[in-house]
Design a protein that fits this description.
The complex is a heterodimer of chains A (620) and B (156).
Chain A (H helix, E strand, L loop, with lengths): L3 H18 L18 E4 L2 E6 L8 H13 L6 E5 L16 H17 L21 H6 L14 E5 L6 E8 L1 H5 L4 E5 L2 E6 L2 H9 L2 E7 L7 H8 L14 E4 L2 H7 L2 E9 L11 E7 L2 E6 L4 H12 L6 E5 L14 H12 L3 E4 L2 H7 L6 E9 L5 E9 L14 E7 L15 H18 L4 H6 L5 H14 L8 E8 L2 E12 L2 E12 L6 H20 L24 E6 L17 H13 L11
Parallel strand pairs in A: 2-3, 4-14, 12-13, 16-17, 20-21
Antiparallel strand pairs in A: 1-2, 4-7, 5-8, 6-7, 9-17, 10-15, 11-12, 11-14, 15-16, 18-19, 19-20
Helix pairs in contact in A: 2-3, 9-10, 12-16, 15-16
Chain B lengths: L1 E7 L2 E7 L5 H8 L18 E4 L2 E4 L12 E3 L12 H9 L8 H14 L5 H7 L10 H17 L1
Parallel strand pairs in B: 1-5
Antiparallel strand pairs in B: 1-2, 3-4, 3-5
Helix pairs in contact in B: 2-5
The chains are: A alpha+beta (620), B alpha+beta (156).
């Protein structure tokens, strides 16, 4: 499996590059050979537009075509978008962190405007951007013609299967693969703890795998319910580092002393479980060697990072590796790292033939990384009227995104503590922002209740940002916010420059509860494609509903029947309002809509039952 | 191996099927009809849904041999030439998808519903499609698309 060092280094370079170079991107880790930086090329009647990012359903292909069409003065259909191919596209960063809209779109507009020979068109004159251009993949999607990574085939490719231990952590004791090796056309590969089989068909590969007797020495899965105590004991305090996208320590004033001297101090702890991405398509790869050069077809969000990780794992140079990333059936942050690509490449090297590996759903749940669990401890000090003057938010393990509050608080210390997690964990839509918003917005609600204040009014009393005030005020009017005591909850935030507020109403349903309705008002600056943006807002909220109500990964999770994701019957009426500010630079919005669902519902539940739920999922 | 005679997307054909092979694998690997998608391998997500004699079945848990002498329709066989099926057109008009991976199964599940119930209410559509997962969360748009298509089909 790939190591964390390359990921860190790649993300650091990407961040610094964007910071320093602004709109014109081309970044590369230092090893590579030829690296294209071409953005746009005229090919006959059409323009080709190149990006190392990919479309996984967020509408990137259409959005970039809009941006280029706008500046070139041509139809969207005259733009052909070439994506995610390390030999043909520039390395303009991974498809993550909602960076496409604020970073890639301006870069494409610049390049297209240069091609036309003028400056980018001012937003007031847009004809194509700002329009709800339909997804250019739409017809292929509804006819079944759209090809996803898992649909790729090569007639001559072998099928690969990987043998895995029963426990998540285990070492080889012994392997007897004699019987499998005697089978015709079967290749068995054993390297370190890797054990896999390639054969002409999946059936033959599985049959051969069954003949292998492998003994592993398992380590017991560490119990999740002891992690919070463990992290609080052994966590490492953050140090200031502003040269990173998500600073782990953000301070203002003197939170330590302000907390000590505050009239009224309250401290509450919150828990966020591990969550599985559960993209509907499981990951797959086809690897093929030609001499010492390797080509891998896959469906990953960060092809250049995958290239670096594959090269390192296989012991070759990056310029010997060619990654072609095809559209995956969903990603959500779960398809960034190299895994199945490395497995296919190892088998293909030994077999001397192309090999295809396609993970099962069980392999996804067992061997892909999960969203990190988190312990969040929020402590605030208030004056006698309830005004918060001191604030300390410590998050363990989940990470720093979404940590600083949107509230005007004089003394703050926002701290992301480092921990050791016993399970594979990694990126996820908005990453820790779900954890940190859940903790902060629930804590604010508790403070409002303590001082017998309306949670909406209490928030507004702490907000100076006029755009955030406006989403709250508009939302309250549209939702018909009834004030405290009416089974309704609210949450708000500034996420990656977007302003959001969510309102929720809960109701009793026998001994349980249900979410009766949800409403979101959001302001992401200029809406570049309002139709697609609303689709993302709705989708993000519904994904957030799963994490709020029932999603919880454990080492025992094996199948979709055990892991509940939102279905039709789980979705309440959802009302959306989008504030479109053409004059303000667009914020990325693929992630933000997920972050407030849990606290809004938890706060509504308190209003309904009088009981505080400080751990997700709320139905547990 | 056993040979089965069946009709796939309007075409009579004979296909060799391995013992125990699932319908989904035969459609995707033998017939190269990749519109039906694998998602969970246990009939729990609906991405592999196809029509077997007009009924929606989960192809990942349906033995291929059970399709002998029957008619199968996949997403590739739903349109009439260039003319989309009303459900395809409605999904396209509403943009009832993001990644689109669940869309073929959704459309075929909805087709089986509308075949039997031409005017389902919103709650009925949700209930009928409960076995389908859209991980991107486009459920409200899907309900809207199905009801639009139903209206269109009743108008003829």
């Amino acid at each position: 499996m790939a190591d964390a060092g390359l990921l860190r280094e790649y993300k650091r370079r990407e961040f610094l590059h964007l910071l320093n170079a602004g709109a014109t991107l081309t970044l590369a880790l230092p090893v590579q050979g030829a690296q294209t930086s071409t953005r746009i090329a005229r090919v006959g009647e059409v323009y080709e537009l190149y990006t190392g990012k990919i479309d996984m359903g967020q509408g990137l292909r259409t959005l970039l075509a809009q941006a280029a069409a706008e500046e070139l003065g041509v139809a969207v259909s005259a733009i052909r978008v070439i994506m995610g191919d390390t030999a043909r596209t520039p390395d303009d960063g991974g498809t993550w962190a909602s960076l496409t809209t604020p970073q890639t779109v301006p870069a494409v507009r610049e390049a297209a405007a240069r091609e036309r020979g003028g400056p980018p068109r001012p937003p007031a004159e847009w004809n194509v951007l700002g329009q709800s251009t339909p997804n250019t993949l739409g017809r292929d999607i509804v006819t079944g013609a759209q090809i996803y990574a898992g649909d790729l085939r090569r007639e001559d490719a072998l099928a690969g299967v990987i043998l895995r231990p029963a426990a998540l952590k285990a070492r080889f004791e012994s392997v007897n693969d004699e019987a499998a090796r005697k089978r015709p056309n079967v290749t068995v590969v054993r390297q370190g703890d890797f054990l896999g089989v390639a054969a002409p068909t999946l059936r033959e590969a599985r049959a051969a795998a069954r003949l292998i007797q492998a003994e592993w020495r398992p380590e017991p899965d560490p119990p999740i319910d002891q992690l919070a105590a463990e992290w609080e004991k052994s966590g490492v305090a953050p140090v200031e580092d502003l040269q990173t996208r998500y600073p782990p320590l953000v301070r203002r004033g003197d939170a330590e002393n302000a907390l000590k001297s505050a009239k009224n101090v309250q401290k509450t702890s919150f828990w966020l479980p591990f969550v599985a991405h559960t993209a509907l398509e499981t990951r797959s790869a086809i690897a093929e060697w030609q001499g010492d050069r390797l080509t891998v077809h896959c469906g990953k969000q960060a092809p250049f990072l995958v290239r670096a990780e594959v090269a390192k794992a296989l012991g070759i140079a990056e310029e010997q590796v060619h990654i072609v990333s095809h559209m995956p059936g969903g990603g959500f942050g779960g398809k960034q790292r190299a895994d199945v690509e490395i497995e296919a490449a190892r088998l293909a090297r030994a077999a001397g033939r192309a090999v295809r590996v396609h993970w099962s759903r069980e392999e996804e749940f067992r061997w892909a990384y999960a969203r990190p669990a988190g312990l969040m401890v929020v402590e605030s000090g208030a004056d006698e009227k309830g005004r918060i003057t001191a604030w300390r938010h410590r998050v363990y393990n989940a990470g720093a995104p979404g940590l600083p509050p949107p509230y005007a608080i004089e003394h703050q210390s926002n701290e992301a503590w480092r921990t050791r997690a016993p399970y594979r964990q990694g990126s996820y839509r908005s990453l820790a922002s779900v954890a940190n918003n859940f903790a902060r917005e629930c804590h604010m609600d508790e403070r409002a209740a303590e001082f017998k204040r309306d949670p909406l009014e209490y928030r507004l009393a702490h907000i100076e940002d006029t755009r955030l005030r406006e989403v709250l005020e508009r939302g309250a009017a549209r939702f018909k916010w009834p004030g405290p005591g009416k089974a309704c909850g609210v949450a708000c935030t500034i996420e990656k420059d977007g302003r959001l507020a969510i309102f929720a109403e809960a109701a009793r349903d026998g001994a349980r509860f249900r979410v009766k309705r949800l409403l979101m008002v959001a302001d992401f600056g200029a809406a570049l494609n309002p139709g697609n943006l609303k689709n993302q807002m709705m989708g993000g909220m519904i994904q957030g509903l799963g994490g709020a109500l029932f999603e919880e990964w454990t080492p025992a999770t094996r199948s979709l029947r055990q892991y509940r994701v939102p279905r039709f019957s789980d979705v309440p009426p959802i009302d959306l309002e989008l504030i479109d500010r053409r004059e303000i630079a667009s914020a990325g919005a693929g992630e933000a809509p997920i972050v407030l669902v849990a606290p809004a519902i938890a706060n509504a539940l308190f209003a309904l039952t009088g009981e505080r739920k400080r751990a997700l999922p709320l139905t547990r | 191996m056993a040979a089965i005679d069946w009709t796939v997307n309007g075409q009579r054909r004979r296909t060799d099927v391995a013992a125990g092979a699932m319908l989904l694998d035969v459609l995707r690997d033998e017939l190269k009809l990749t519109g039906a998608k694998p998602g969970c391998g246990e009939g729990a997500c609906g991405a592999c849904t196809v029509l077997l004699d007009g009924r929606a079945v989960k192809a990942c848990v349906t033995p291929a041999l059970s399709a002998r002498n029957k008619t199968v329709v996949t997403i590739e066989g739903l349109a009439r030439g260039e003319e989309l099926h009303p459900l395809q057109q409605a999904f396209l008009d509403v943009e009832a998808y993001q990644c689109g991976y669940c869309t073929p199964g959704m459309i075929l599940g909805a087709a089986a519903l509308l075949e039997r119930e031409p005017a389902p209410g919103e709650a009925r559509v949700r209930q009928a499609l409960e076995g389908h997962i859209c991980r991107c969360g486009t459920y409200p748009r899907i309900v809207e698309a199905v009801r639009r298509a139903a209206l269109e089909m009743r108008r003829g």
